[in-house]
Amino acid sequence: MDFKRLAGVLPLLFAASVWAVEPFVIKDIRVEGIQRTEAGTVFSYLPVKVGDTLDDERATASLHALFMTGFFKDVELKADQGVLVVVVKERPTVDSVEINGVKDFPKDQLAENLKMVGLGQGRILDKSVLDKAVQELKRQYIARGKYAVEVKATVKELERNRVEVSLDVTEGEASKIRRINIVGNRNVAEDELLDMMKLSTPGLFSWFTKNDQYSKQKLSADIESIRTFYMNSGYMDFAVESTQVSISPDKNDIFITLNIAEGEKYTFSKISVAGSQTVVTHDEVRKLIAIQPGDVFSREVLTESNRKISERLGEDGYAFANVNPIPEVDKEKHQVAFTFVVDPLQRTYVRHINISGNEKTRDEVIRRELRQMEGGWFASSKIKKSKQRIDRLDFFEEVNLETVPVQGTNDQMDVNFSVREKSTGNFQIGAGYGSDGFTFSGSVTQANLFGTGNYLSTQINTSSVNQVYSISYTNPYYTDDGISRGFDLYKRRTNTTSTYTSEYYSNTLGAGVRYGVPTNDDEAFQYGISAEKTELTLTDSSPQRYIDYINTFGDTTSNLLGTIGWTRDTRDSAIYTTEGSTQRAFIEASTPVSAQRFYKLSYAQQWFHALSPNLTLRLNGELGYADGYSGMQLPFFKNLYAGGNSSVRGYDYGSLGPRDSSGNSLGGNRRVVGNAEVLFPFPGMEKEKSVRWSAFLDGGAIYGDGGQVPGSMGMRYSMGLGVIWFSPAGPIQISWSKALNDQPQDKLRNFDFSIGTTF
């Protein structure tokens, strides 16, 4: 049979030999050249079958179909006495992929990324796949700021049409931001603007923050931070005219230039209110607007006023209220007037409250904190309080709230809470260094037992001074209306012979039950009763007052104790507190059937205030008083103590107050402690909330009878610095303290360290 070559571009397109032939009826189809591919696979892709007439059009379609499979790098069609012969040359199969020179990434991670672009063991190799693999590797490094990365691909042919692919990576150094220029700022210093940016030139802590490595996303966020600053400072015409990012020829240095136009500073000229007065009057709305004529224009104040009006309308169920501040700009005088147009629209009720993201925590644990009910009128304060209460559970890293209108209605809304759970189990160890050397402690807690919201704590401390074995269990919703119940079982052994407190041994075994009764969303009362037995042993160095006590009451005492407490918590968040306060008042007293008759009173308050977006002030005050009644004295092992990391840093634990003739602390019956602390960003890491400095000033004292060392009582003060780091291994706290008015007999403790991890 005579054949002629098919003219045209087809051979160039498919890199195959194609022969034009007189049309013929296909009697059979034979495939030659396959090694891995099944003949049936070839048949399934061919658009012709036995009995069809093969012509040039169908031959072209057959070649196209086989090439599109990606299995073959050459395809040829032949005719042999009515038999269609398909001759193929398969693409090679990847036998292995080696990645060399990689340090910044785990090789397994890169191998998985390469599989996603088609390069992996057992895959068919072609040039486009190899190019994609090289580009993917480069993309991974460029995302880390290593623009100078080089990737060289080598393909080694093996037997049976297999290949070995090697990707040799030269990582190079990460490109650094060498300069950030801001052009066009006339009224604000460049350094002030640079401080607002997360991106920066290399600094002392750049190895940790990576802020000296360029990121398009970070730059966009920085530009928005600068824009927000100007818009809140009166420059309502502010604009970023252009942004240039350039890299040096060696790809090691990056230069960023921002061209801005500040415009003129504007002031508010007039504020008025318009719209319906059926829900709230114009006068009431005007009181919610924190703007007065003559004030510098601020988008933040404008937005906050708008929010307050919307929330006020939301209190009465008008969730879709439309509050629209309409501006009237005077370009010549650089003034702007606003008219707040208020339209309450339709009153709204909540259809469904949906909760998502709680894989471990049960729905009921979250729902019992809700104050907005399904089917009730929408109330913004109740929804806000619901989010706050869920937040205070401290079971979640994030609590997000979304209100969604119900489609097809104008008076219904769904409320969606999405949470991101965190590990609520905690193992914590602590260490400190003072005048008596190193000390250690530890505890294990689970604050959300099996997702029920119940609390279980086990403390084990085997130090030479205090041996504590305790178990505490609390069900915060023992009843449906929020009454809690808890149980405590504890065993304490105290050996003060190696401390700076007066010497004695005690062995206490106790158990108790307690209840909490909420009076509103922020307040609750606590009631409890416990029984404990204490065995006392003295040493030759024990003070006379301890000897007198045992001679009077014996070395073994049993007490039935009652407790009453009150707490109030108005913190905005338990995750990251910036505003609000906590208060706690507590009374512990032995009952008349006890061996001793005594009582202890305490009051503590913490107050939080945001000084700025980055600075938080925490003030803490504590008062304590204890005494005996019915003619009995306060047991010495129930004395109050102060000093140490939880009260007055810079002084040893329990070392403040009256001392015996040996200079050891006796404790006392009156306690006062005060702390002032400012949390602020770590120098060089201003944008990282996971690491913060704290500067603190502590003061406190213990007062009581029996002191034999002059000057041991009285207020003691200290100051110092601390570091709080929420590390991947858990929270780490380090503090260094300096006593300000220590006396010769005082025992100092300059350094404290603790680390915790979650599970």
Output the keywords:
3-stranded mixed beta sheet, 13 helices, 759 residues, Ubiquitin-like (UB roll), single chain, extended, 17% helix, 16-stranded antiparallel β-barrel
Please explain how this structure is put together.
This protein is of the alpha+beta class. It folds into six domains: 87 residues, membrane protein fhac (Ubiquitin-like (UB roll), Roll), CATH 3.10.20; 78 residues, membrane protein fhac (Ubiquitin-like (UB roll), Roll), CATH 3.10.20.310; 86 residues, Ubiquitin-like (UB roll), CATH 3.10.20.310; 77 residues, membrane protein fhac (Ubiquitin-like (UB roll), Roll); 59 residues, membrane protein fhac (Ubiquitin-like (UB roll), Roll); 262 residues, membrane protein fhac: a member of the omp85/tpsb transporter family (Porin, Beta Barrel), CATH 2.40.160. Helices cover 17% and strands 43% of the residues. The protein is extended. The chain starts with a strand and ends with a strand. The N terminus is likely disordered.
